[in-house]
Inverse folding.
């Protein structure tokens, strides 16, 4: 996968209140919306370190291609003259190898000078060591205000709408798109005036064995109010055996990770000047499901390999 030359990237619109904040205090962290007790770290968009990424990239991409036999195709479909909103399906539990593989592939293909930010759960960015390292790669707390600010700088943004619900779905549902009706990504793309670029991935749920997402347990413990957790997954994973919650992560099996970047979707071009959110959501998810089903059909090895 060879690097591509960088083109100038235009800045997208941003709401007036956020624009005033950015102008009055450029480079200052953006506080995430507090929708639970644990809100996640403030997003400092200047914390992404292209030189750090460049130094880490060769070894990490080598390890990803050897351990997960990572294959990412379709990056040539990504517009180079403007920011885009990457929308992916999420797999692999709290280790989520699909997001790591895509970030490595993007930086390898386009070069680390083209900025990209990945939206992550508040627990990820709030974690002391992991959060500090992740922000150098451009990992920021998920939230509309933060995502809008990142797009406004001309950067690309990666979002996984299904979040914890999708990443911990049972193994029997490994080839399903599960966004759980979350349509914020459509509003974000519409308001920012950027195209949606779907990214589908298979193999992540074969890196461990998720048995159930444990939604009932999460509701009983009121974890949504504490940490915006909708699930308490139960899985079989190394080295724990029975793994409840996946809070300490796990050792992934070396299953092959295969990803495909789909053609961009311009909401206004396809749905008119005032795109219907439900219609656009249905279109994007159906396109992704079709591609995911086709991608899964390419697997020839047994599960977990």
């Amino acid at each position: 996968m060879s690097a591509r030359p960088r083109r100038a990237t235009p800045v997208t619109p941003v709401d007036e209140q956020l624009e005033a904040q950015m102008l009055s205090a450029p480079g200052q962290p953006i506080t995430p919306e507090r929708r639970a007790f644990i809100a996640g770290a403030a997003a400092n968009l200047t914390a992404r370190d292209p030189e750090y990424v460049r130094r880490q990239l060769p070894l990490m991409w080598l390890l990803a291609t050897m351990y997960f036999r990572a294959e990412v195709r379709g990056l040539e479909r990504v517009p180079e003259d403007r920011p885009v909103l990457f929308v992916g399906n999420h797999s692999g539990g709290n280790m989520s190898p699909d997001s790591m593989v895509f970030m490595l592939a993007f930086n390898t293909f386009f070069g680390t000078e083209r900025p990209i930010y990945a939206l992550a759960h508040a627990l990820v960015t709030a974690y002391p060591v992991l959060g500090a390292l992740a922000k150098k790669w451009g990992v920021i707390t998920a939230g509309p205000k933060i995502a809008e600010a990142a797009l406004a700088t001309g950067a690309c943004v990666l979002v996984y709408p299904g979040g914890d619900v999708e990443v911990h779905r049972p193994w029997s549902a490994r080839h399903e798109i599960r966004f759980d009706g979350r349509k914020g990504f459509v509003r974000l793309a519409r308001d920012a005036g950027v195209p949606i670029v779907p990214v589908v991935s298979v193999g992540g749920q074969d890196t461990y064995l998720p048995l159930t997402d444990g939604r009932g347990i999460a509701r009983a413990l009121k974890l949504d109010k504490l940490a915006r957790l909708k699930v308490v997954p139960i899985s079989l994973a190394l080295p724990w055996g029975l793994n409840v919650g996946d809070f300490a992560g796990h050792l992934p099996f070396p299953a092959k990770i295969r990803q495909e970047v789909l053609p961009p979707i311009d909401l206004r071009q396809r749905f008119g000047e005032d795109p219907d959110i439900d219609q656009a959501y249905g279109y994007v998810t159906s396109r992704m499901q079709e591609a995911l089903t086709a991608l899964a059909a390419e697997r020839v090895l047994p599960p977990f390999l």
